[in-house]
């Protein structure tokens, strides 16, 4: 798992930018539910009025409010307003701008006026309760006046009313507010206190709604256009929502762009790292990592990592930001329903844990199954001619189907688990929505919350659950990507047995190419015994050193030690007196012209393959190399000559043509040491003879090593090394070995005629050895 985060952490600058942009995106997403709530609560239900303290109020309405305000607070209220007798159809008080900008002052005004506004609205509504209060108050005042006035006094003039206003005024004609004005201040304050005590148990939302309703009525009373006010509020709030949505969209696009860039860059760097690592592998590492596995690790595994890095940056980083922000917003909206979120999170966590425990073991084998399928596919496609020749198509189809079925079953299991997860998550989300509506409906009925708040709560809850849902989806993908990352890291961290020295040496500039094996032994890593033991010989420039032996005697292993495909277990190999392990591999291989046992060509054309080791060489060098290798006879027959295309692996040329092009490639490099690892086996005898004769002239100043199965190829070599079970059992010329080496004589007798054997023995006896090449 740590490897995944290590690969992503390499791009920490981009990740910081992504986190900052995600914060902006989360802010936009988390702000939208609040605006939705405002549109429902304020824009629709409150008609666009969001004030809980009237900003404009008619003078007569202010007088009514002050009836329910204590004497201590009346001056505070009046100080917050200024008179305006021209702007509206009635004389009015207008809230001072300095007061409106002070949050604490506005909050204080709200506390002072909230209950008076509700009481005023209630009285103006003319409800039955208000009628009962008014009748009771009139009755009490009528009884009080009857007791306090002398016999025969005019009962139409209430106590305390000026004489000029006494005409035709009776208690029955008075409004509730007139009656309250008549009450003594102390009595009115006592009555207000009792009413406040009764209202103190009311939810704040009811008081807030009453205050807003009063403000709406006050504005309407002044002649303000309330429809225009509502439309203005809806357009303003809707415009802010649109702007936030656009900003969130831009942030999301930017995050997707950066995350994709980081993912693609990580994939590119990993592929490059794996490729450069594999290029430096010795044969031992290739034996440890199969070709099919390396292809899977370089493609499928890195693709898994790349996809997950994108998901990590787009979802995993965003999910906690969104979830934490959603929780904070929920706490502001309604704390009483937060238990619903906790319940949803517990259910989701349980589902994820269950799936994780069930699916995780499958991910550990999934990538190995992909390896196996790739291996089987590659083997079948590569060996198709052999399969057809032996009529084993049915068996190979069954082998492929078996690997394919196993992988399919595992993939189906994983996908079904993920398919099971989605309905469960949707069930949780819908169940939570129903639970919120059920609980919220009771809250709205009790006056504890508004419809818009419930809608916002649902949206916040969905955002929180979606955050956890994204983490759940990642948790399913994470194990497979973690396995892939471990497999890639295994390649990147693998120890290469062949490496350049820390303090390198160089070959002498006047070196001729003298190659010496000094008591060389070699054992494959992990093997119990040596495959080569105490090999000693010297190959000189201008001479041909041949290596022959039965199958499995170690011939190819011996020549593979020269370009350091393997390193010797003991002893030394020197070139011009310098141990080949003490120079850079590149410098060593620049001296060598290697023709492998199995000719390997690359996609391109004939020219690019011949000049593969000498890309800056001239056309004359290319043609000369092709002529020496006897390749011109088939190149000249092609319409495009040297520009003729070569398919991948040289599949469009014959085995002999492939070998000749491989030999031409080595000749065009002009090396000091030629290594031919059984490179003439696919050539007919005539071509073999002609090629070796031309090669002898070209390589007259070079050291030549030839691994051969056919004695006819090495008859005239200056030195023949005979190997048997990894040991040198003979060394000398053809004639000398026929006389002194039983193993060589046995090989010769199986390939040469009696006449040829006698001629060689007579030549040795007479001491007449001619240096005939070819």
Give your account of this protein's structure.
It contains 29 helices and 15 strands. It is rod-shaped and about 160 Å long. The strands form 4 sheets. Strands 9-12-13-6-14-15 form a 6-stranded mixed β-sheet. The protein has a 4-stranded antiparallel β-sheet with strand order 5-4-7-8, with no helix packed on it. The protein is α/β, with parallel strands linked by helices and 774 residues long. 63% of the residues lie in helices and 9% in strands. Mean pLDDT is 79; it is low at 151-169 and 767-774.
Helix/strand layout:
Elements: H1 2-9, H2 12-45, E1 56-58, H3 59-66, H4 71-79, E2 81-84, E3 92-95, H5 97-100, H6 103-125, H7 128-148, H8 176-182, H9 185-199, H10 204-221, H11 226-279, H12 283-288, H13 291-316, H14 318-333, H15 338-382, H16 384-389, H17 393-445, H18 451-492, E4 515-522, E5 532-539, E6 544-549, H19 555-560, E7 570-575, E8 578-579, H20 585-590, E9 592-595, E10 604-605, H21 606-610, H22 619-628, H23 632-635, E11 645-646, H24 655-668, E12 673-677, H25 685-698, E13 703-708, H26 711-714, E14 719-724, E15 727-732, H27 734-740, H28 742-751, H29 754-766
Parallel strand pairs: 6-13, 6-14, 9-12, 12-13
Antiparallel strand pairs: 1-3, 2-3, 4-5, 4-7, 7-8, 10-11, 14-15
Helix pairs in contact: 2-11, 2-14, 2-18, 6-10, 11-13, 13-15, 13-18, 14-18, 15-17, 15-18, 17-18, 22-24, 27-28, 27-29
């Amino acid at each position: 798992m740590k490897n995944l985060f290590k690969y992503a952490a390499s791009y920490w600058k981009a990740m910081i930018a992504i986190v900052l942009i995600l914060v902006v995106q989360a802010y936009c997403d988390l702000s939208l539910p609040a605006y939705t709530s405002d549109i429902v609560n304020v824009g629709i239900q409150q008609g666009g009025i969001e004030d809980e303290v009237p900003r404009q109020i008619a003078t007569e309405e202010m007088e009514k409010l002050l009836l329910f305000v204590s004497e201590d607070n009346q001056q505070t209220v009046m100080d917050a307003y200024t008179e305006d007798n021209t702007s509206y159809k009635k004389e009015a008080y207008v809230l001072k701008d300095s007061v409106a900008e002070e949050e604490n002052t506005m909050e204080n005004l709200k506390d002072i006026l909230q209950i008076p506004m509700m009481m005023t609205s209630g009285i103006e509504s003319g409800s039955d309760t208000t009628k009962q209060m008014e009748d009771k108050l009139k009755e009490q005042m009528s009884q009080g006046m009857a007791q306090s006035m002398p016999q025969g006094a005019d009962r139409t003039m209430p106590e305390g009313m000026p004489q000029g206003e006494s005409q035709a005024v009776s208690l029955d004609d008075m409004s509730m507010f007139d009656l309250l004005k008549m009450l003594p201040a102390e009595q009115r304050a006592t009555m207000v206190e009792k009413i406040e005590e009764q209202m103190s148990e009311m939810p704040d939302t009811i008081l807030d709604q009453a205050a807003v309703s009063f403000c709406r009525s006050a504005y309407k009373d002044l002649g303000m256009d309330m429809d225009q006010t509502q439309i203005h509020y809806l357009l303003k709030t809707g415009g802010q929502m649109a702007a936030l949505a656009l900003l969130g969209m831009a942030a999301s696009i930017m995050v997707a762009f950066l995350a994709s860039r980081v993912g693609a860059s990580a994939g590119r760097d990993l592929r490059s790292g794996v490729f450069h690592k594999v290029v430096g592998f010795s044969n031992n590492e290739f034996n440890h990592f199969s070709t099919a596995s390396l292809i899977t690790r370089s493609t499928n595994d890195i693709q898994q990592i790349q996809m997950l890095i994108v998901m990590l940056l787009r979802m995993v980083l965003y999910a906690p930001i969104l979830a934490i922000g959603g929780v904070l917003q929920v706490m502001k909206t309604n704390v009483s329903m937060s238990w619903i979120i906790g319940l949803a999170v517990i259910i989701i966590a349980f589902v994820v844990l269950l799936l994780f425990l069930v699916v995780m073991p499958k991910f550990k084998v999934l990538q190995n199954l992909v390896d196996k399928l790739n291996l089987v596919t590659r083997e079948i496609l590569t060996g198709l001619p052999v399969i057809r020749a032996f009529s084993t198509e049915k068996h190979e189809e069954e082998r492929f189907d078996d690997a394919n079925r196993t992988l399919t079953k595992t993939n189906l299991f994983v996908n079904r688990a993920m398919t099971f997860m989605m309905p469960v998550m949707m069930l949780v989300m819908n169940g939570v929505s129903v639970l919120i509506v059920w609980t919220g409906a009771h809250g709205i009925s009790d006056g504890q919350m508004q419809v818009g708040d419930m809608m916002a709560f649902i949206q916040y809850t969905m955002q929180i659950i979606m955050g956890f849902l994204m983490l759940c989806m990642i948790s399913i993908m994470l194990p497979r990507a973690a396995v892939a990352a471990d497999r890639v890291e295994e390649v990147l961290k693998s120890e290469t047995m062949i490496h350049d020295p820390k303090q390198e040496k160089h070959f002498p500039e006047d070196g001729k190419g003298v190659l010496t094996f000094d008591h060389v032994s070699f054992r494959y890593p992990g093997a119990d015994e040596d495959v080569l033991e105490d090999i000693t010989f010297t190959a000189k420039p201008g001479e041909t050193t041949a290596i022959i032996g039965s199958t499995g005697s170690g011939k190819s292993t011996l020549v593979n030690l020269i370009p350091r495909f393997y390193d010797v277990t003991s002893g030394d190999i020197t070139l011009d007196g310098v141990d080949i392990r003490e120079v850079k591999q590149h410098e060593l291989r620049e001296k060598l012209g290697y023709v492998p046992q199995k000719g390997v060509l690359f996609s391109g054309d004939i020219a690019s393959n011949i000049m593969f080791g000498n890309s800056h060489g001239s056309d004359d060098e290319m043609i000369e190399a092709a002529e020496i290798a006897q390749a011109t006879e088939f190149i000249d027959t092609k319409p495009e000559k040297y520009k003729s295309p070569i398919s991948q692996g040289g599949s469009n040329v014959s085995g002999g043509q492939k070998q000749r092009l491989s030999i031409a490639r080595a000749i065009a490099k002009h090396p000091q040491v030629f290594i031919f690892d059984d490179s003439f086996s696919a050539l007919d005898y005539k071509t073999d003879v002609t090629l070796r004769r031309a090669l002898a002239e070209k390589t007259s100043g070079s050291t030549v090593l030839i691994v051969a199965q056919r004695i006819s190829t090495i008859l005239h070599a200056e030195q023949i090394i005979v190997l048997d079970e990894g040991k040198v059992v003979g060394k000398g010329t053809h004639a000398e070995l026929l006389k002194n080496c039983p193993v060589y004589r046995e090989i010769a007798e199986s390939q040469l005629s009696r006449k040829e054997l006698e001629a060689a023995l007579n030549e040795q006896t007479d001491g007449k050895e001619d240096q005939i090449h070819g």
